[in-house]
Amino acid sequence: MVKLAPFEVEQWMDKYETTPGVLNIAETCAASLSIADLAGIADPIVSHDGLSILPAADPLSALATTKLTYGAIRGSLTLRQQVIDLLSYDSGDSVKSRNNAISLGPEFVIISQGAIAANYLLFYTLLGPGDHVVCTYPTYQQLYDVPRSLGAEVSLWKLRADNGHVPDVAELEALMLILNNPNNPLGVPIPRAVLQSIVDFARARDLIVFCDEVYLPLYHGGPVDLEQDTRRDSERRSELDATRPPSIINFGYDRTISTGSMSKAFALAGLRVGWAVSRDPEIIRAMLATRDYTTISVSQLDDGIARYALSDAVRRPLLQHNTALARKNVQVLKWFVERWSSRGRVRLSWVKPTAGTTAFVKICTVPKSEEAGDNGDAEDDGGAGSNKEEPVDDVAFCLDVLDKCKVMMVPGSKCFGHGEDFKGYVRIGYVNETPVLMEALAKLDWYLEEFLA
After folding, report:
1. pLDDT of residue 222
2. Angle formed by the axes of helices 281-291 and 114-126, to 10°?
3. I want to staple 33 with a disulfide (CB 3.0 to 4.6 A). Which of 37, 43, 94, 398 is the partner?
4. How much is the pTM?
């Protein structure tokens, strides 16, 4: 019998996210949208004669007459082509932003029940006893504990604050390299140049490079300070595109695999639609053979709404909406972290996220004699802190804040560090509705002042 370790972050979410009146800033999806919301933000369509503007098609009316058979086993042809198109865009929103278009067809894509199913299918198909994989850490627990449950030897590739939480390629040696880009919980992407080094390393050794890209393409920061930069949008976009990491599929190496979903960047977790893409047809064939024993296909209804969300009329405004929300909310969270970077006995620190929806914030206290005023820079030490700082018990802290304030966060040590690493860290999902984030931070502000400062 396969023994799987408890999936700590999912069990934590399941236990506490339905708390009555909860302000959930543990959620990692961009603020969820309805089908009506999608229709409301869709770009209008110009008629073929150019004389009239038409609304984007209603996905529900098209699905109303669809016979509910199993549908296309691999996923509809249209949706699989849209996934290829999505991964071909470095910024995900325009054909003009294509730098390294993928010369693949839809036959290299499998549609799955979310990225979590694609990941599991991949591991079950490719890994077994005696295989050695290296996985970036911290990350989503599935990415290292499922390979471990299948008998693979797992090495954790620790992302260090003193290296900007970017992996060091010099530490690599494995059969499969497992990446998560952008990273959950850190919100830090692996830069394009580092990804190229990883692919070059793997190519020289015939290694598989698997990248969970569930937060792609939600990039909202980087070397350009979007709040202070007064240059034209085209100039800022050019600099961002030069550094923003593309999909791992874009580097021209066959033994690469990307998984993603409609859940995080697209705010449609209720669809349960994800995918796996590989340049290697043997990997795709093997995964399809394995899936014959499990889910067979995805729901035609989910597939249809996903096609609508990834259509040209909807994808661009949807990503613009969610990116703008992320950009706005990370500034709200930045103000809060800086406010408490050195206030009374409390020390908050982080590496400000530039992608995805999550931030990993460290909460420490200092002895009474070490109290400081409201100053300091929360980002100077990358979250390392001084020797006199003591991390809070993050599990007890999260439970007490939930009890007293109805604010939900995820404890870092329990859900990402096996109870040993990342003590004092909490994961905050900040790309929810701005009023929810602001109310939650106001209550957290009261808690820190009342009980820790």
Report:
1. 57
2. 100
3. 37
4. 0.87
